[in-house]
Specification:
about 15% strand, alpha+beta, single chain, two-stranded antiparallel ribbon, rod-shaped, 2 helices
Length: about 80
């Protein structure tokens, strides 16, 4: 009877080892497929004062970018 118990114990250890390897591989895949690295915002330059600012905060008129409505209005007068 001792030999059968040893065989069963070895089979259970092998099954546990296989599950452990699959779990570790899944954990490694999650780390690789994590969130993408942070991308800095695209910067544009004001056509009037040459200030650089993020595109989502700038005002666009035709092909020019402006930091505020006053600079846009001044540049449109010319």
């Amino acid at each position: 009877m001792g030999l059968i118990k040893l065989f069963i114990l070895l089979v259970l250890a092998y099954i546990a080892f296989v599950f452990w390897r699959q779990w570790k591989a899944a954990q490694a895949e999650k780390r690789r497929a994590g969130p993408p690295p942070h991308q800095p915002p695209k910067m544009v330059r004001c056509a009037q004062c040459q200030l650089h600012l993020p595109e989502h905060l700038a005002l666009r008129q035709d092909d020019k970018w402006y930091c505020c409505s006053e600079h846009r209005d001044v540049d449109q007068q010319y």
